[in-house]
Amino acid sequence: MKRSTYLLTGLIRLHAELGRELGYKEEEAQKVRENMRLVESVIKLVEPDYDTRQIVYLRRHQSNKVVRKRAHLSRHALAVLREATRPLMVAEIADVMIAERGLTDISVEDRDRIRNSVYCWLRDNDGKLVTKHGRYPSRWELATHS
Asked: Which residues, including other chains, have CB under 8 Å from residue 33's CB and lie 6 or more apart?
């Protein structure tokens, strides 16, 4: 039976947080790796049988710059589709949303994150609020209920 202690739990959390820092700070990677090795050695002192490879690195949640809540995303996407004169691709919808928010210096990662959020919302509401046309690139418009 494994012995679970506050010390071991704290060390595991510290190791996971150091792993997160490893991904964000490339210039300090060597120092972070050394700190991780030191934490692993203390874990081995406390619990010799513990496998440190099973520790999952923590990732920070990065907020979406255009939409703060999911309801804002749906209202904004519906407004864009209402104003559109033709079916739009996901990238076009996201670009209109970004432009309406006035975000000019947005990173590629943030743009992709916004496009992914828009796509997931459209996919979840396909046949309910919106209709998909074509396979790739898919174009979306408001659903017409008769």
From this structure: 22
| 34 lies in the same domain as 78 | no
> Please, which residues have CB within 8 angstroms of residue 2's CB and are 6 or more apart in sequence?
47, 49, 50
The residue-averaged pLDDT of 79-107 equals 87
49 with 75, same domain?
A: no
Q: In what helix (H) or strand (E) does residue 123 lie, and over which residues does it extend?
A: helix 108-124
pLDDT score at 145: 67
- Whether residue 17 sits in one domain with residue 76: no
Which stretches of 5-89 are DSSP H helices? 6-24, 29-46, 70-83
Question: How many folded domains does the chain comprise?
Answer: 2
For the full predicted model, state whether its pTM sits above 0.85.
no
Evaluate whether residue 10 is within a structural domain.
Answer: yes
Domain, as residue range, for 118: 70-142
CB-based contacts of 123: which residues, under 8 Å, 6+ apart?
Answer: none
Q: Which residue in the block uniquely carries the two structure tokens 């006035």?
A: 102
